[in-house]
Design brief:
By secondary structure, the chain is α+β, with helices and mostly antiparallel strands. It has nine helices and ten strands. The strands form two sheets. Strands 4, 5, 6, 7, 8 and 10 form a six-stranded mixed beta sheet that branches. The chain has a four-stranded antiparallel beta sheet with strand order 2-1-3-9. It starts with a helix and ends with a helix.
Length: about 290
Amino acid sequence: MTQPTDVRGEHLRAALHLAASGIPVLPLRAGKVPFGNCRRCAENACGGRPNMKTPGPCACPQPCHGWAAATTDTHTIDSTAWARAWREAAAVAYHPGGAGLTVVDLDDADAIAWARTALPATLTVPTTRGEHWIYRGAMTSRNAVRPGVDIKSRMAYARWLGCGTGSTAALPDAVRALAVKEPPPARRAPQSRTALLRGHGGECPHRTPTYLERGVAMAVQRITEARSAVHATVYRTFIAVLSTHGRCGCLTDTHVNRLFTAAQAKGETARHCTDAWTNALTTLGL
């Protein structure tokens, strides 16, 4: 929807004022979203990145690359190329990281209550549902660092909602720590397949070893003859073998390796075989 002239002029005036203060700005459409790529930049034709996480070599003068379109060039902001964007703009946004700032976006009352006990006071700007706490210093952006809390700094944009109250404090370590992702859990050393069954040995119900050998041979044949849905066939076969032979301790690595070899001959990876085997054990409570 086209904005009235006075609203459009207000957005443009605010953008020019911010840019003159060294804060990179861009127009936002309704819904707090940036303008989509123009025809020249569609389908990544300009060499920019369609996910808008990093600016490409695009020289397009229109504001169509998300946060990367933010600029302090007042001539660009007030240019003919940006005129249509300002006619349709619903708000002004800025790139906090580009201005050396970090915004802690608090979405609700619970998040605000947490911030008041966990973070140092700083410049505070009311939002529709909560508050923006603005700190001096740039850092990595990250959403959902805790319930109702996002961090907007580098490679992100935030709506301009006014000057707020208070003075801007230096970016504290407490905020930086929020964006640090936990390292992935250390992988355990691989176990033998029979080790996964350890502790489940019981009285063997099989009259002769031939029963087990025939069962494994039939399982290998079932996998080998699969013509489609190989993933599902491998998993179902593992379930069948374990449901019959998995509780008495008769299965050895030799038997299981035969099953894995048959599956890998059908194109399955060793990782998928291990995952399918482990999932089968879990499903059967082994």
